[in-house]
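Action item from last week, closing it out:
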Amino acid sequence: MVSPFLYFPGERLSMAELTAACLDGLLTPIGEGFMPADAVETAWMRARSLAPLLGERWAAVRSSAAWVHGGMGVEPFRHRIQRASAERARPPRRTGVLANDVRIAPEDVMAIAGVHVARPERTLVDLARSGEADEQGAARAWAEAAPDLAEGARAWLQRHPRFPHARRAHALLSSVRTM
């Protein structure tokens, strides 16, 4: 599907033409494509920019999903994806992509711009249970900025008490100061 606001190499313009437009200040990179420099970056734009990477079988999770939902202001250096389909799939062979072949529960996935993305509550839990300091910091900042989401994430943890590293996530989410 060709979008009037997103350009992918080979659709309408070559990679060389898209890169030249970036150098001229007309376009800016986003996900797997480019968007007009003066366009507003929305959740739809961020999700749709990952469509070539995710396809039908993969979902954006953790920091990638947080970026799509607006929980992180900067696109992650490495996109995190997880299998969303029932069938096993070969992960994309690209640098800057970390794939998890364990299927994410269908109730934890939503569609934005035709792309599978982990729901915000699950995304916040995944960031909070992470062992990486930058993801924990992002979880803390997002939970402080969105207290209703933090409450939803705590409720998600209540429904999934045996989830890996749930104690770490619960401790982080319980220590967050709400505005």
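Closing note: The helical segments are 15-23, 43-49, 51-54, 62-69, 120-129, 133-145, 147-159, 166-174.
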